[in-house]
Design a protein that fits this description.
Aspartate Aminotransferase, domain 2; 427 residues; single chain; alpha/beta; Aspartate Aminotransferase, domain 1; seven-stranded mixed sheet; 2 domains; 15 strands; 14 helices
């Protein structure tokens, strides 16, 4: 049994340092409990969660409906592999394809795994449907992208830390600047072997880089014109996070479930989902597209032991029901507007913050310092001391993404914590 001394933060930090791979640089806080918008460390200190496990916990920590669904299924059947059918997968496939308005779904476990599947599907579609010569298919990606850290994905990463010394890298990718429709058109005009355009509707890891409102719509038109698949990576931006069911929905005004409003919605050919599709309770991801695309995949060509397991299916359906029943998309929309307005008011007289940007409850502030500085990290450390957890990205950017179950009163308290903390760093 652990003693009081053994359960200190330092004890757990030392265990990870001595026995684990040093593949992350987390804030030095050891968490032991979560509920709704709150987290508690091993010493009992309470925090507001302003990262939501990189938008995986949109429904809040340990949502009782999702946890109960997990418990019930865990007592009945957990895994069959895809060697056999199970009584949850078909129901889940019917449910999610209807929910997002696609004909077919391929189940996976992690976001990176789903991205890899989408790349394979788009390439095979290119060979079998577009008649691209074998091994010549190319996929357009954007600079500063983040789609995961598997070997294929890092091959087209702009991040040296993710890429260097992990080669040789996979070929077949063309990088263009993000939010540059002219660059996209130029590549499509000059490269006949393009199978797909893989893009994040908002670049989360790049610092919540939000493109022009018409970028995705114009990309849709170009991809259709040149017979190229538009592949939307909504692993971080999807499931209500941006104030729309999907970031691809644009600035919608839907009051219930997604209405796919014609003036704002951009339908991708392939939709990649993960993270919040399970409410952070279980690893679940999915690739959705219509039959004429998905049917290029035949038995034995893609899959995984855990993909589509009964627990994943049950949890995902309940997690998506929570988003709809509790109107979390609409809550993210209204709270996000309030958050950005408050931070913008603060910036008017600030020397430490240059910009606030984002949509819904996916937001970031740009610190008035270099990417090499420790200012953003130090601010996050002080935020931690003041009871709020956030994390820097790209050195001088702090991402703010609380669970979508947050109330207006809780948001106001968090705004006060953030602005008070920032004031301590003003010159």
């Amino acid at each position: 049994m652990e003693t009081k001394q053994q359960t200190s933060q330092d004890y757990y930090l030392d265990l990870e340092s001595r026995h684990g791979a040093h593949d992350y640089h987390p804030l030095p806080v050891v968490l032991a409990k979560g509920k709704g918008v709150y987290l508690w460390d091993v010493d009992g200190k309470k925090y507001y969660d302003f990262l939501s496990a990189y938008s995986a916990v949109n429904q809040g920590h340990c949502h009782p409906r999702i946890v109960n669904a997990l418990k019930q299924q865990a007592e009945v059947l957990t895994l069959t592999s895809r060697a056999f059918h199970n009584n949850k997968l078909g129901k889940y496939m019917e449910y999610i394809t209807s929910y997002f308005n696609f004909e077919r779904m391929l189940p996976s476990n992690t976001g990176a795994e789903a991205v890899e599947a989408a790349i394979k599907i788009s390439r095979k579609w290119g060979y079998t449907q577009k008649n691209i010569p074998e091994n010549k298919a190319e996929i357009i990606v954007c600079s500063q992208n983040f789609h995961g850290r598997t070997s294929t994905i890092i091959s087209f990463s702009s991040d040296p830390g993710s890429k260097n010394h992990f080669g040789p890298h996979a070929s077949g990718f063309i990088t263009i600047p993000y939010n540059d429709i002219e660059a996209l058109e130029s590549i499509l005009e000059t490269h006949p072997n393009i199978a797909g355009f893989l893009v994040e509707p908002i670049q989360g890891e790049a610092g919540v880089y939000t493109p022009n409102e018409d970028f995705l719509g114009k990309a849709r038109i170009l991809c259709s014109e040149y017979n190229v698949l538009l592949i939307a990576d909504e692993i971080q931006t999807g499931i209500g996070r941006t104030g729309s069911l999907l970031a691809s929905c644009g600035n919608c005004t839907c009051e219930g479930h997604c209405e796919r409003q014609s003036t704002t919605y951009t339908r991708p050919d392939i939709l990649i989902l993960g993270k919040a599709i399970s409410g952070g309770t279980y690893p679940v991801s999915a690739v959705l597209c219509d039959s004429h695309i998905m049917d290029v995949i035949q038995p034995g060509q893609h899959g995984s032991t855990f993909g589509g397991n009964p627990m994943a299916c049950t949890v995902a359906m309940e997690a998506l029901e929570v988003i709809r029943d509790e109107k979390l998309t609409q809550n993210a929309r209204s709270l996000g507007k309030r958050f950005r307005a408050a931070l913008q008011d603060y910036i008017m007289t600030s020397t430490i913050v240059k910009k606030v940007r984002g949509k819904g409850l996916l937001n970031a502030i740009v610190i008035n310092d270099s990417e090499e500085s420790k200012t953003a990290w130090n601010i996050c450390m002080k935020l931690k001391d003041n009871g709020l957890l956030a994390k820097p990205t790209h050195g001088n950017i702090i991402r703010f993404a609380p669970p979508l179950v947050m109330t207006e009163a809780q948001l106001e308290e968090c705004i006060d914590i953030i602005t008070t903390t920032l004031k301590a760093f003003e010159v």
